[in-house]
Specification:
alpha/beta; 6 strands; Alpha/beta hydrolase; 37% helix; AB_hydrolase_fold
């Protein structure tokens, strides 16, 4: 079974590298694309979905903002299973902090220069939100194109989506970005911050083994 994977906002796949997937799974990583100027969200999702071969069964897995993207992709190219790590199923699960950005439209008026590598205040916010006790936090954030980062923050704050009950949601109970109290996840990772795929990889591996082994049982029965 092929699993197409989209990582988190600005993150490469290093945040997921310690997770052990079942041996029957073939992992295909979809790299972040830089949005074109004034590109509609739907057009961007369509470009991200181009790498997926839907002529055969496949699954989707997304982390954080990648979880939002794979749910959008699933509407274009339906998957056998959609799994989201540290992400939300609908706009109803947004935190008050993210809802503030949606209502005030602040992300839209922030200058692109705020998101460049020299903007220490942005990375201070990232440290505080994602995992304040992790000294290696910034090693996971490799995609630092300022326009992409500003665009992504806008899209997360503006995202509107009706929950798909078939989406499998895995959340950390210490996640500040997407607090668990706003969601009803299928699985909870105890002590997991937003970086739980990296810091709680054994727990996540165990969950994914259960999630993806179910597909094989149903296929062979």
């Amino acid at each position: 079974m092929k699993i197409y994977i989209v990582s988190g906002l600005g993150a490469d796949f290093k945040v997921l590298e310690r997770i052990e997937f079942p041996k029957h799974c073939e992992l295909i990583f979809i790299d972040w694309l830089i949005p074109e100027k004034n590109e509609p969200f739907g057009a961007y999702v369509k470009r991200m979905a181009e790498k997926i071969d839907d002529s055969e069964p496949f699954c989707l897995l997304g982390y954080s903002f990648g979880g939002i993207i794979v749910q959008e992709i699933n509407q274009l190219k339906p998957a056998e299973k959609v799994v989201i790590l540290g992400s939300i199923k609908s706009d109803r699960e947004k935190s008050r902090f993210i809802r503030t950005g949606e209502v005030t439209k602040i992300p839209r008026i922030l200058p692109v220069s705020l998101f460049n590598d020299k903007a220490a205040n942005v990375y201070a916010v990232i440290r505080k939100l994602f995992d304040p006790k992790n000294p290696k936090l910034l090693q996971y954030f490799k995609v630092r194109d300022p326009y992409y980062l500003k665009w992504s923050v806008e899209k997360v704050s503006e995202w509107k989506f009706e929950e798909n009950p078939n989406v499998i949601q895995i959340l950390g109970d210490k996640d500040i970005v997407f607090p668990i109290r706003y969601s009803n996840p299928n699985y909870v990772v105890k002590g997991g911050t937003h970086l739980f795929p990296a810091t709680k990889s054994k727990e996540v591996s165990k969950i994914l083994k259960e999630v993806f082994s179910e597909k094989i049982e149903k296929t062979t029965s």
